[in-house]
Amino acid sequence: MGFHITDMQLNVLFQTWQTNYHIYAPRNFSGGGRFSDTDCIRYGKIEHADEIVFDKKSDYSFKEVLTPVSQTLFFFTEGQTKEADFPQKGAVIFLRSCDLYALKRLDDMYLHNGPADYYYQHLRDNIKIVLMGCEHSFENCFCVSMGTNVSTKYDMSIDRQPDGTYLVDCKDEAWVKQLVQAGCEQQEVIPAHVTENQVTVQVPENLTAEVAKSTMWEEYNSRCINCGRCNFVCPTCTCFTMQDLFYSENGKVGERRRIWASCMVDGFTDVAGGGSYRKKNGERMRFKVLHKVLDYKQRNGYHMCVGCGRCDDICPEYISFSGCINKLQSAMTEVTEQ
Ligand code: SF4
Ligand code: SF4
Predict the structure, then answer these.
(1) What band does 141 get if pLDDT is binned at 50, 70 and 90?
(2) Residue 2 C-alpha to ligand 2 middle, in angstroms?
(3) Using CA atoms, how far apart are residues 18 and 257, in angstroms rounded to an integer?
(4) Which ligand is nearest to the CA of 228?
């Protein structure tokens, strides 16, 4: 059911949510940007609607709510372990259409790729989704090409209007009841979404793993500096590694954490005996790109990449992932003519 609501009515709704949920949304972290005196937009807890950044793309995605950058799993002493506490409340997460498709990819990896991940499932079981409409495309977005520009599986949608009011489409029955009781004006609402982006990509129909033999990957040996930023901002990258933090010198008391990992950085493919599978940065780029737009689809029926463009936004070497996808067609021609 659709409503036209005021800032005050939205904040009253927020107050009731906060009994059982933390609210996470893209917000401004002053001074947290990549360069001195620049800000960063990433996910954090909010209490009021005016903390949400509606007019810019978030630098980092919502995934850190469900898969924190560093997550303590348990504590250990010589003879005992104790599981880390989970948050007491669930999470209401504000996200955009591409990120809602990314949530499905996270579910694929953490819930359906073998036994469900205990820690992810615990957090995932108690979330509500608020879809933030996109009135226009942001720089480097290519959601239309990836088919992720329209979403319908949300608990509520929200579009901020130029006068500071909001249009919401509410599917959660309890929230609908609250909005009706608060006397909010009812009207039909279709969440804003883009129908075209400046950037378009085309994944070749005939793409196969043979493209790995192309010379196209070599340019990334020197251009990429294996910083891993593209992985950390990506809403669909799910790799992590383990870290033990010892509180005592004898190494018998401490905590085990899992922390984000990146297939682009040194050490990711190191194996026993001193081996390393992908030493060159071009090989890592090849692995990442083909995982996003080839082998994942072979297993799940759709691409892993959702076209948010954050990897292009963040790369310090101006390497374009979308540009790389668009080189795959000629790379396929190159390898089939060999
Ligand atoms: S690969 Fe890049 S464009 Fe695709 S989902 Fe990840 S960050 Fe977004
Ligand atoms: S952000 Fe750019 S330079 Fe850094 S690892 Fe990714 S592609 Fe390479």
Answers:
(1) very high
(2) 42
(3) 28
(4) 2
